[in-house]
Every structure is written in structure tokens, then in C-alpha cells.
Amino acid sequence: MKKISVIGSGFSGMSAAAFLAQAGHKVSVYEKNHTTGGRARAFQEQGFTFDMGPSWYWMPDVFEKFFGSFGKHPSDYYNLVQLDPGFQIIFGKDDVLPIPASLDGIYQVFESIEKGSADKLKKFMAEGEYKYNTGMKQLVYKPAFSWLEFMNLDIIKGVAKLDVFQSVSSHVRSHFKDERLVALMEFPVLFLGAMAKQIPALYSLMNYAALSMGTWYPMGGMMKIGEGMQSLAESMGVEFFTSSEINKIQVNGSTASGLLTASGTVSTDGIIATGDYHHMDQVLLDATHRNYNEQYWEGKTFAPSCLIFYLGVSKKIKKLIHHNLFFDTSLDVHAREIYESPQWPSQPLFYVCCPSKTDPSVAPEGMENLFLLVPIAPGLQDTEQLRQKYYNIIMKRIEYLCDDSILPYVVYNKSYCIKDFVADYHAYKGNAYGLANTLRQTAVLKPSLRNKKVTNLFYAGQLTVPGPGVPPALISGQVAAEQLLKSLK
Ligand SMILES: Cc1cc2nc3c(=O)[nH]c(=O)nc-3n(C[C@H](O)[C@H](O)[C@H](O)COP(=O)(O)OP(=O)(O)OC[C@H]3O[C@@H](n4cnc5c(N)ncnc54)[C@H](O)[C@@H]3O)c2cc1C
Q1: Distance 108 CA to ligand 1 centre (A)
Q2: Phi, psi values for residue 264, rounded to 5°
Q3: Closest ligand 1 atom number to CA of residue 468
Q4: Would you place residue 190 in the very low, low, confident or very high pLDDT band (cuts 50, 70, 90)?
Q5: Which of 377, 397, 425 is at the close of a domain?
Q6: Are residues 120 and 209 in the same domain?
Q7: Residue 433 lies in a domain
Q8: Ligand 1 pocket: which of 36, 263, 433, 474 to mutate (most atoms within 8 A of CB)
Q9: Are residues 119 and 194 in the same domain?
Q10: Beta pairing class for 239-241 and 26-30
């Protein structure tokens, strides 16, 4: 039995800890914050329960596979419900597109907007299913140390069908003309941290995930997933230490031997570092043991950061559903202000989650729990005045588009932005979702899962393979744990 340390208690850290404990090791998880869950923590105020980060539960099969590895099922830990409609896109006051849960319903919506588009969507989804099955079963569970890992017969035979060299945007536009359908089909890849123009069409597997596999919600909130994973890990003997920041990884020769905390050094036989990769590599290690330098990180395309408001509202808002995308201004202009000339958006697009539509436990009776999110470029100036300015802009837009008075009913309001991501997670430039999954930052081209100079140190999480998002974080922890186990043998 080896003594293994996991730095960080987000999804990747909890996943790694569970697999390492299952292999019979003594695992300790060190978390700098006072609660576990990482970016998916929650907090309670005035009778509201706010999920701080993720709100979309997609790819339920990945969660089933994770819990299934331990003879469990998600329903052993939380009650999952499918949302119907899955989400809605608000293009204007009288131009709202709800997306039904069933594929047949979605085909009807497409056909009503653009003649012939239902058949095109069927073809698009069949390709998406192939990509999903190949991508999620054969590609993402690889450590991506070498391209040779991807050279199996199925992948070579199907490489043309995997569509690695055209963008999601051109793939979508070759099928659909109506700008609303284009926006709907391009939206799911925003989760990968870049615009559809920059993302290989392999990732239209996200459309299959979003439209065919459904949008789900764990009753009680997304933090129920983390609670379930922690309880599973603890049942196998994993110990969690919160308010326990790791300040240094100590290395002897080419072996990590200890972790420095405020209360002293803990010895270790192996480490999985799941906090933000840049911080783990550049700050916790001496220069001689780092995988990369600052120049390397400067050259990377980061996924956006965001400005968030957690609001308690003392009335019901009729026109909102659980997931609402406000796409009433130009996606292209907003994208340029994130990626090409980083600046605060001139006409922000934003997203509103209203979980109290599904879950009475997250708000007092008769009230709404709102989570407002505006994606912004990482590294922007973040001041109280700017946050207030955008609060006013967004709230006025919501009031107008929902035809409802909301501002006077806000009884709780907390903002969260770049400075908070840096303070809470040591996030490089205050990024929210890690690295973008562009072609030049896919698989072997991502920051490596292993430290090339320290044999028993591996990285996991949204800045390494397979990429940003909750399902990838679960997979990343598993793959890193498997590699550490191999190295210990
Ligand atoms: C606002 C927001 C909305 C999102 N929405 C979605 C969504 O709807 N669906 C989806 O699938 N994904 C979503 N994501 C992405 C998803 O939440 C993340 O990709 C995932 O949770 C990342 O998990 P992780 O384990 O890689 O990192 P983290 O959750 O960041 O965990 C890393 C942990 O390491 C800790 N740590 C850092 N440094 C140290 C140190 N020195 N010592 C000890 N501990 C340390 C941090 O405190 C943190 O708890 C969202 C993310 C954000 C921020």
C-alpha cells in the first residue's frame, strides 16, 4: 500500500482519488478552500442554494461509467431528472426557441423553421453518434503521450468520418441556413472553450450529446455529484483535508517525496496535481522540475473567464425555464471581444440558469434562484464598477425580453469574476474553464498529463487531457490515476 496525495478536490481530484483507493492505496486529498468540489462548489444564503459553477448535466453515460467502475450507479447518490424542454434560446422578445427533450420533437422544430432541415439533422446526428462513440470510447480515455496511441484500425479507418480538419462552424453551415438553427447547432461547442470556427468538427459529437442524450439535472443541485463522489471515495478510505493549501511539491532526484502545507511537510509516494496546471507546475515546483515555462502558457488559447451573478428573487419569473440562452445580440462580435481583441463585451450575450423551475429545494417558496453568466476574455480588468455596469445592462435586457419587472425583487445578489477565480483556484488569468479544445490544443498537443522529469507526479483536470467540462474532468482523474498506478508498479 502506497501513500498517495491528490492536490485539489474538484471532479478530477475526486475521480483520481477514488480509482487510487480502489487499487488499494492510502489516499489523501488536500484542498485549499474550506469546502470540497472545486469549481462545482455550492453555497447557501437566505434560504437559497447556489451552485457556483457547472449547471449543465450532459453525457449521463460518462457519470454512469464512473460510478459503474465501483459497482455503483448515479442513482445511489442523487436523483437525476431529464429537463423538457432541455433549454431555450431567446433571440428576441417574441422569438424564443425551446428545445424539446425528444429527438422527434427537435426534428419537428427544425422542419418548422427550415424546410428539409429535419432530414439534414438526422444525417448530422448519425455522424455525431459515430464521432461520440469513437471519441468518447476510444480517444478520451488515452493519456495522449504519443500519437501512436490513436493509431488503431477503427480510428484509422474512420479518420475521414471523424472530421478533424474542418471546423464545427463550416460543418454546421453546410447543413443549415437559418441563423437560429446555426446558433443552436454551434452553441454546444462553446463548452469546449472556443468558437465553432476554431473547433474541429470532430466535436460536433457535442451536438449528439446535447440533443440526443438529453439535458439532465441532479435534484438538490450539481453539487450533489461531488457529494456523491466524495462519499464513494470516503467509503474506500480516502481522507479529505480542506483548508489545506499545498505550497510546494518537494522532489528528491526524479521522485516527488513530500508536500509542504502551512502546518508542515507530509511525505508521499506519488502525487496527482489537479489544481490549475499553470499553478501546479510554475508555482509548486522548482524551475528544474517544471514541464513548461511562462512563455509556453502565454502562447496558449485559454477558454473564457466569466462574470457571474448569484441572485435570489422574491417572485416567480414566468418566461424563464431552467436553462435560458440570451442570444439576442451578435455571437460573432462577442466572440471577437473574447478571442481576437480581448475587452469587456460591447453587447454581451449571456446565460441564465433558473434551477428553482425544477427544484423547490434551491429557493424559498414563491421565489427564484438565478445564476447569470456572461463569458469574457481571461485576464481583463475586474472592478466593482464594471461588475455593476454589466449587472444593470443584463438585468434591463432580461426584464425587457421576459416582459417582467425583476430588479425591485432582487433580495440577494453576489457577483463572482476574474479576481475570484484567481483567489479561489489560482486560475491562470482568472480563466473559468481551462484551455480551449482547438485543433492545436487537442490530445498530444495539450499540456501533458505526466511530469517529464518527476516520475511519480501526474497532472489532471481541465487544463490537460481530455479538456474542459465535468465529464472530461472525471475522465482526466481516472486516466491520471491509471498512469500513476503504472509508474508505481
Ligand atoms: C462558471 C462555470 C460554469 C461551468 N459550467 C459547466 C457546465 O455547465 N457543464 C460542464 O460540464 N462543465 C462546466 N464547467 C466546467 C467544469 O466545472 C470544470 O471543467 C470542472 O469542474 C473542472 O474540474 P477540475 O477538477 O479540473 O478543477 P477544479 O474544479 O478547479 O478543482 C481543482 C481544485 O484544486 C484546488 N487547488 C488549487 N490549488 C491548490 C493548492 N495549491 N492546494 C490545494 N488545493 C488547490 C482548487 O481550490 C480546486 O478546488 C463550468 C465551469 C465554471 C467555472
Answers
A1: 37
A2: 135, -170
A3: 19
A4: confident
A5: 425
A6: yes
A7: no
A8: 433
A9: yes
A10: parallel
Domain of 200: which CATH number? Answer: 1.10.405
Tell me: do 361 and 403 sit in the same domain. yes
Shared domain for 345 and 408, answered yes or no, is: yes
In tens, the pLDDT along 428-473 reads: 999 999 998 888 898 899 999 999 999 999 999 999 999 999 999 9
Query: Quick check: is 469 in a domain?
Result: yes
Please state, in angstroms and rounded to a whole number, the distance separating the CA atoms of residues 446 and 20.
24
**Residue 365 CA to ligand 1 centre (angstroms):** 30
Residues 175 and 287 in one domain: no
Mean pLDDT, the chain, rounded, equals 95
Residues with CB under 6 A from ligand 1: 7-13, 30-33, 38-40, 53-56, 245-246, 274-275, 279, 306, 308, 425-426, 432-434, 461-462, 468-470, 473
Q: What pLDDT, on a 0 to 100 scale, did the predictor assign at position 159?
A: 65
User: Which pLDDT score is estimated for 187?
Assistant: 85
Q: So what's the pLDDT on residue 156?
A: 64
Alpha-carbon gap, residue 477 to 469, rounded angstroms: 12
Helix (H/G/I), strand (E/B), else coil: 33? coil
Q: Do 366 and 285 share a structural domain?
A: no
Label residue 220 left, alpha or beta by phi (over 0 means left) and psi (-120 to 50 means alpha): left
Q: Ligand 1, closest atom to CA 39?
A: 29
Among the candidates 185, 213, 241, a domain finishes at: 213
pLDDT for res 158? 65
- Considering the domain architecture, whether residues 255 and 231 belong to the same structural domain is answered as yes
DSSP 154-178: HHHHTHHHHT-SSBHHHHHHTT--S
Query: Atom 46 in ligand 1: which residue has the minimum CA distance?
Result: 425
Residue of the CA atom closest to atom 32 of ligand 1? 275
Write down the pTM of the prediction.
0.97
Task: Name the residue with cell 466535436.
Answer: 203
Residue 146 belongs to what domain range? 104-213
In a domain, 83, yes or no: no
Tell me which residue of 473, 471, 474, 462 sits closest to 437, measured CA to CA: 462
Measured from the Cα of 244, ligand 1's closest atom is 43
HSE toward the beta carbon, residue 202, CA cutoff 13 A: 21
pLDDT surpassing 90 at residue 201: no
In angstroms, the Cα distances linking 199 to 70, 168, 444 are 34, 6, 16
> Distance, CA 53 to ligand 1 centroid (Å)?
8
The answer to the question of residue 91 being in a domain is no
Ligand 1 atom 17, closest CA: 54
Are 293 and 306 contained in the same domain?
Answer: no
Q: How far is the CA of 151 from the centre of ligand 1 (A)?
A: 31
Spell out a b/e string for 7-40, using b for 16 or more CB atoms within 10 Å of the CB, else e.
bbbbbbbbbbbbbbbbbebebbbbbbbeebbbbb
Into how many domains does the chain fold? 3
131-173 confidence digits (pLDDT tens): 899 888 878 999 999 888 877 756 666 666 777 778 889 999 9
